[in-house]
User: Fold this.
Amino acid sequence: MLRWKSSLRPSTGQPILDSDVLLYVPFTDANASTTADGYVLSGGTHTLTADVFTREGNAVINADQSTINGATTSAYGPAGTDNDGWVLDSTISSGLEVGSSSPLSIQFWFYCSNAASGGYARLLSWGGYHVSGTGFEVESANTDYDRFIFYEFAGAGVSRRSLGTYQLTANAWNHIYWAFQPNSGSYVGINGTVTNIANSYINNFAPTNDLNLLKTPSAADDAVKGYVQEFIVKDTVPYTANFTPTTVPLISPTSPSGTNPGTTNLVNDWSMDETSGTRADSHGSADLTDNNTVGYATGVISNAASFTAANSESLSSPTQPVTGTGARAAELWFKTSSTADMAITSYGSSGSGAWWRIRIENGVILQRVFSGTMSWSNTWNDGNWHHLVMQVAASSTLNDVDLYIDGTLQTRSGSNNRAINTGSGDFYIGAESTGDFFDGDIDEVRYWDRVLTANEITWLYNSGNGRAYSALSGGTDYRSTVLADNPLFYYRLGETSGTTAYDEVATANNGTYYNTPTLGQTGAISGDTNTSVLFEQANDEYAEALTLSSETSLLPCTIECFIKVSGASDDNAGIFFYRSGSNSASGLNIRGTTLGKLGYHWRGVSNTYGYAGGPTLSDNTWYYVALVVESTKATFYVIEEDGTLTTAVNTVSHSALDCSGDGWHIASDPFGNRYFQGYLDEVAIYDQALSQSTVVAHAAAAGYSS
Assistant:
């Protein structure tokens, strides 16, 4: 498990970085960004500075490569042209030129990809061959993409010395380290193995150009194809002997991901996943009674409660979350397009300040206590999901109530010093006692008896994806983990009725159940209220996803799901399978007639469906399963609930699949009678090869770990 340092000093809010760090660029910026922010040391303080690196050519921040430290992105240089790469801001570059007064070191993680754009490509260039003055370069050994020469320069051209040629691990993350000590020596480290080169060649480090990463200045020579993370410049020599490179970021990425508030002081949690009847309290004991048949709809996470005002629908409990003058935070998701005056949640009694009522009136959010009202600017009845946190500290007035919508603190309208002292009347969701009924959907309702921090609210909002109760109580929740890796589609199979299989990525990809499989079965993930589906082979039960019409060249590909075999399937039964026309049969299946034996097809090629080395699943046991298909191999990963990992690799060539002609099938292969017998849960597909570390992290997020 990765361990993260706290990112903020308790009193000043400044990041905790060692005093010798001159520059730190994690490259964890938003996917598709063309610039990268970083921390720059100035006046003894590390300041987060925008656009420290800017791209040239087609370089971009992206999430295509599984990252070394759990971040979602890294800097990428495609090496399509000599100009693809990253350039450090000139002011920052010049500020790092330590002259003769100090040593200097550079370290970073580099994913050594499969090609340079030509000979003598530069992984890093700062000064060097094509400019005058001192400098440092890391250059490919001619056209070798995984062998690099380290050079130090005392002047242009051949005024240099080689620090040696070093072998990197191809198609993997490598830790790169260089340091020099004026009037002493230099050091090169590859994956923690350090070489000491005596007699310093540079005594006054002052390059005359900016630092270039994955390219040469002015495109004078070729660029390197690959990814970079955790770029660090120090004015010390931190390593003079072998060391173990860390994958832990110098600063925890608390923004934008935030901080998990956990379940400390959590009072109630209503997921609203039920399709009818009582809505269970996942954390407390205040289950909600269904008044007048509240419906359900697709929620932010699984299902949501759906209210029709005209039917006087509500949910209620005689138990209140927080009463009196106590601190509280109410969190929920809501969606409405109504202009009526409506209650979202309410409870309390008559008397000055004795109600606690969260309302929306013509789109404006209000808090109404008895004999007092506070409202906030902006309207939120646009028919979209919005995340709401309304909170107040103990012994406060309406002037102290804060409202966050979609992670952002809202501005109060006016002033009201009415004291809050909430009574003990029944608690309602979707109504104010027997009136002011809500028209719309509500999901994931929680109450704490404390206020939340801004970082905790950011974490709960989760960029609009929300957080399940399992995430608060047990670490990283599985759904968020999957969505962070950008699947093409993701079916949780958590429906309890109906014929629609909902896609978590886009509603346009919702699928359909056929022949009435048994929904609402206990799921694979302990502590997660999301359910699974039992598919009966004898009844030809399956589900079909909508067609991915844009996927005309799928490779690499990862398929993942949870599987519990329950008896014998048809021969070569599909688990997650595509077939439309000739040379298209592709996906994960049961191989032959062996109970629980995993196999696969790819484009109907015999050395894929003929592969007999796949793992075997025991009957009536849940497993996490991933199949990763790449150009040169296919890898099975099977992880048991105790974390035991089994892998199998078929080392054969695979070509890209055109799967734009029809939908993928869950629990069947469309060819003949090939139906699966058993339970399936959490089915996803990616247009990328998830690494072993990513697969293990996904399973761990579901509790499948030691």
The longest strand covers residues 104-116.
